[in-house]
Amino acid sequence: MNGGQPIFILPEGSLRNTGKDAQSRNIAAAKAVAESVRTTLGPKGMDKMLVNSIGDVTITNDGVTILEEMEVEHPAAKMIVEVAKTQESEVGDGTTTAVVIAGELLKKAETLLEQEVHPTVIVRGYRLARTKSMEILNSFATKVALEDEDLLGKIAMTAMTGKSGETARDSLSALAVQAVKLVAEQQNGSVRINKDDVKIEKKHGASMEDSELIKGLVIDKDVVHAGMPKSVKGARIALLDCALEVKETERTTEIRVNTPEQLQAFLEQESTMLKNMVKKVADSGANVVFCQKGMDDIAQHYLAKNGISAARRVKKSDMEMLAKATGAKIISNVDELSKADLGFAGLVEERKIAGDQMIFVRECKDPKAVSILVRGSTEHVVDEVKRGMDDAVLGIIAALENGKVVFGGGSSETELSRRLKTYADSVGGREQLAINAFAEALEVIPRTLAESTGRDPIDILVDLRTKHDKGGETMGVDVFKAAVADMKQMGVVEPLKTKTQAITSASEAAEMILRIDDVITSKSTGSSAPPMPGGEMGE
Fold this sequence. Notes:
47% helix, 539 residues, 3 domains, GroEL, alpha+beta, 18% strand, 3-stranded antiparallel beta sheet, 7-stranded mixed beta sheet, GROEL, domain 1, GROEL, domain 2, 21 strands
């Protein structure tokens, strides 16, 4: 107090929560987010129907898709959504796992807070457990290489399990493996793969089995002129990053025309310029042109007369992928175009799919960019199949870049939990409580899988722990038979990176939330919200 008057630091209407109140609110919000996606985990996970503000419906059990559509408001809950987004961008799969573990870590921490264990001690224990987890996971991971097609196929199948594409997962996983193998590059003994080199296009109106891998590219464009060939075999492809149009003058220019002859001469001059542009394209030997910018009607006419097929306003990303797939160089000036700049494809054809014209660039010799055209009976089905295919491709890439895999079905989490409990005994102190809490939190994965079977999860969990205590490292939950089974024999394989990334990001998010003991929310403009107790900070 200063002379009996309170000193106001925060504006009137600001909300402030401090101490345990702030922690419990943050933990409750984060747990609510985790609980919203928990039931989607695993092959027998349930789906969620999400309806947005304009009535569009999304049906999915993909963790990150659910959280993105939910429009989460609470700041602590947003941190958990970030965990899912990071997992999606880094690995592609395991978003639900990451979020569920984060929620469970906070739930266990809440129990410790009630027992008067200080948040700093919990955070320190969680960090020790996280570091040890990385070490343990690496110790029982299995190596994988580009030649292990069978193992890579199992990774893709595991990633797709539970999504709509599951019924055709054998054929879809084979497509994912082939696609990744085509774009993979060996560098200094390690595999380098750019995930953007595998383009996944979706079109409804056919069965999932009709999905196909194009050794080249699918472009959502049509051939610009009716007189151009719709199918070109032995395509010699020119990629132009310049407009096939007469440039407008940069300054405001006035052209005075006094006679019809002068007007005719002016128009003929423009036509001649366009004709010369097309001649340069034809002289290079190109019979297919992809143009990133505009294309004048007269230029289209001359291209058609020369038997050259063309598409305009092609996206920059598609142009870059065409260059990788066909070996062409992107040219910024048509005067510079030569035979050496052309790319090659066995076939370029325009096809009508689900009512839309699309251009297929097929049979490239050594494509470093490929497309997978995903099909499905309806819009909602094909959306979910595409999400499954994204997870499969990213899962294979994550496994190859890291070079290691672990077994799923909750087997690696159970083994990790068992070993962490042994490690906790060696640490001692109050951190031991936090490490044990971390170990118990990991068991949420096998427990959730056991719950989705419809049987009593406790029976399955007890059996699972017993098998692991007897050395069954790869034993996990077989959700189809509601029993414990060997995940190695069942072929339930996941990239090591899926687990390490999920545990790291979940743990770090939980630690950050636990360290917050004061939440100050500034009032929004024009807000008439009443001030919370503690809204004024007096001395």
